[in-house]
Amino acid sequence: MKIPLSYSFRNLWARRLTTVLTVSGMSLVVFVFASVLMLSEGLRKTLAETGSYDNVIVIRRASNSETMSGVDRSQASVVEAQPEIAIGKDGQRLLAKEIVVLVNLVKRASDKPALIQVRGISDLSLPLRPQVKLIEGRMPRSGSYEIIAGSSIAQKYKGAGLGESLRFALRDWIVVGIFDAGNTGYNSEIWGKADQLMQAFRRNVYSSVLFKLRNSSEFPGLKEKIESDPRLTLEAKREPKYYADQSEMMTMFLSILGISLTVIFSLGAIIGAMITMYAAVANRTSEIGTLRALGFRRRSILLAFVIESVLLGLVGGFVGLFFASFMQFITISTMNWQTFSDLAFSFALTGRIIYQSLIFSFIMGFVGGVLPAIRASRMNIVDALRAA
Amino acid sequence: MQILKLLVKNSFRHKLRTFLTVLGIAIAILAFGLLRTVVSAWYVGVEASSASRLVTRNSISLIFSLPLSYKDKIRQIPGVKNVSYAYWFGGVYISEKNFIPNFAVEAKTIFDLWPEFVLNEKEKNDFLRDRKAGVAGRKVAKKYGWKIGDTITLKGTIFPGNWDFTLRGIYKGAYKGTDETQFFFHWDYLNESLKKTDPARADRVGWFTVNVENPDHAAEVATAIDKAFKNSLAETLTETERAFQMGFVAMTEAIIIAVQMVSFVVIIIIMAVMANTMAMTARERIGEYAIMKTLGFGGWHIAGLIFGESFVIAFMGCALGILATFPAAKAFGDAMSTYFPVFNVQRQTIYLDVAAAFIVSAVAGVFPAWRAVKLRIAEGLRRIG
Amino acid sequence: METKSPIVRITNLYKSYRRGSQIIPVLQDINLDIADGEFLALMGPSGSGKSTLLNLIAGIDKADSGSISVGGVEIIGLSETELAKWRSSNVGFIFQFYNLIPVLTAFENVELPLLLTGLSRRERKEHVKMALRIVNLADRMDHYPSQLSGGQQQRVAIARAVVTDPALLVADEPTGDLDRVSAKEVLDLMERLVHDLGKTIIMVTHDPRAAEMAHIIKHLDKGVLNADTQASR
Description:
The complex is a heterotrimer.
Chain A: H1 5-14, H2 16-49, E1 55-60, H3 73-80, E2 95-106, E3 113-121, E4 133-137, E5 146-150, H4 151-156, E6 165-168, E7 171-180, E8 189-193, H5 194-200, E9 208-212, H6 219-228, E10 234-238, H7 239-246, H8 248-283, H9 285-294, H10 298-326, E11 331-335, E12 342-346, H11 351-377, H12 381-386
Chain B: H1 2-11, H2 15-42, H3 44-47, E1 53-58, E2 66-67, H4 70-76, E3 80-88, E4 102-105, H5 107-113, E5 117-118, H6 121-129, E6 133-137, H7 138-144, E7 151-156, E8 161-173, E9 183-186, H8 187-197, E10 204-205, E11 207-212, H9 218-228, E12 236-240, H10 241-251, H11 253-284, H12 286-294, H13 299-335, H14 347-374, H15 377-382
Parallel strand pairs in B: 4-9, 6-8
Antiparallel strand pairs in B: 1-11, 1-12, 2-10, 3-4, 3-11, 5-8, 6-9, 7-8
Chain C: E1 6-19, E2 22-35, E3 39-43, H1 50-58, E4 65-70, E5 73-74, H2 80-90, E6 91-94, H3 106-111, H4 121-134, H5 150-162, E7 168-172, H6 180-197, E8 200-204, H7 208-213, E9 216-221, E10 224-225, E11 229-230
Parallel strand pairs in C: 3-8, 3-9, 6-7, 7-8
Antiparallel strand pairs in C: 1-2, 1-4, 4-5, 9-10, 9-11
């Protein structure tokens, strides 16, 4: 590349306004692109990390989510008796039978309602979930109408803070503790004692059974056993897979929407870049002629203009990524269409997303600039020199 | 007309640049139109709701059922014309990707409560007579190629097992915004089966739909219904259908707000692109403008030409964008039919498109026009050489 | 009279332009020898083809037929790539509007032709400084063209033209955009290039003052060379 890079750089700087406008267009596209990727990644992370690989969740066959599932006591006992379940230090099986229902809560900020998952837990529920830690208060006592709330719920919903109380099923339930579950979906839940909740809601069946495998490789065999047992109408999934399946619909929706937007916007950004570069070429016609006269090859001219355009794209890419990275501070709370419960998740920026965004901005810059660059390189020297 | 001709000719002086600008604007208008259509599709349930219908459900949440016996009590509340009930069945047709809203309903009252589901007499009677009958909306029947007489099998998720239904009717929506993707069947059929397999869940419904005599008294009737069941085992929450639908929308509000914000940003960006083009063009023509001033054209004349050209380009782009919006919306709607049963481009969106183009061209023309007005002839002439 | 060997030898040169379906002849059967170290002015009315002739000799345009030999190299028949390479070390350009790259400093503008050679950074710097000294603008090397007067810009252009030490310099209306004083400076400089450095200069001009500086004046009219006019020198 014989023509110095500074030529391309400085020409962008010389036409500052145009450069800024074009870069803004590019950065917006990259911002949308990166944000959509970050949203999907954040969603995937929240749901997928909400679960340990060695844990298995058993629900009713084809029920899709705990809220629609029902595991009656006898079936739960059959599961409990399986030898593949890990045994804890005190000799008890690391297994929890839980019930999950949806309850309407009202948001503090907007007074708008949302459906929140309320989970009835047993003694081993917390140990089975190492991602969850009690950060304030204490666990609910057996036989009491006490509950603990995920930190996200305590913050956002009326009556869910420490010491406050919620009313449902004709009773008042006092929040005696707050737990933090990191990025996982548990943060959007309220937990109470399973027996208490079952009694209050007059439900006699559990929603799910959660247990830890004594040996992770035994899962396929165990799954087969449970699912082909004629006494049971259940299916078993590894916890992470269960949660990943739950987000399928939302992920697909966001992907389609995001990709459509990105495609349309990128076309717009490319056109913006084309207009800019064609104008640049038109303005510098005599310069191009001079360079050719001095002996610079067509190739060098082509490359110089392509570089200019790619620079526009890359700068737009960095700016877009910069702003997109701030999205990491935002949490979105929306209804998960498969479970109907409210889900809070945030945007996650990964190295892969950065890399993809930059490639994308590079390609946009390239496509926008290649045709004008070709025009520049194909100019006839004499005609170019004649232009004022 | 002469002026219009001049403006068009001027715009095409720089064919490639004008073409690209028009294309850019068309794309932006298309994006804006699609985004607005997505937002309006979200509210379609709300828009389609009837003012004279109330929804009564369990006050805890939608997943808790109500006893069937409540029906008679509700019927007796003053102001209530008719009551029907339904259960969200949540069955899966072949695979989970094929999302179809399906319900078990009270067959004899459903069409009274929902006059917008239009079914011819024969199909209606066939449905009523056959316990195992099902009725599907026109869109979903078309999507999966269902014909009257077909056996439709749903895999139960809430109510386990494989459930077979015979398709006895295909309903059409009375309005453009009516959901034609639903499938419903006899609640009695479901209940009979439950009595045998899961008696604890029998004789219950998901919600009641109440037709009020006078929509103006809807709020009072709703309060009266809830009062009737206060302190019972299953307390109710009754709201207008519109409020009920809005509840769902509110839960996914965050996404809607994001989409709306993005659509406004799109407009701002087109403005920038358009402004850039007009500024470039004006900069190149400074010499010409100076000459025109020497010939006696006032600064305002020239400003008019600049705005005129800006409008011509913007409206060409707008028209192209609007034309493209319809096929694009169709394609998008088909791809997303699982999420949006109704995906129509509203007239309001078109008006907004035009308004946007108007604003964009005005803003784009302002700076160059101002410069043209202020231009000193000698300075402009110097630029020619 | 010394018989210097002709550095440029043109034989039976024809050039025409096509405009639509019409063919317009511009140069008809040009035969011309230019001796090494000569300062030639090409004059003639508008449309006479003098710029075209200059462009052909400089290798930036292609003739229809005939032969142009510059420094022993037959340039008709060279490919574009070969011509580009040839130009970079054999021809220096001086344009009416200077044609400096606005975003590059005087130094960088002069350096441009050297980027096509294999010289190291340090060597390039030496050459550039020397060229700028010849035109007396060494102190302005970090200025941008917009910060220089017309005359100064033209001198930078001249520095650029000589930095690769080509034997031949072509100038198209070099004083066309300059005031009287600057024009004189530039012309004196060009004379020095011929006299002190042995360059050959072919100059197209309308300017009688410029023509005065040349050794030989040739007239071109309707594509045909007229008889020589000996200049006053």
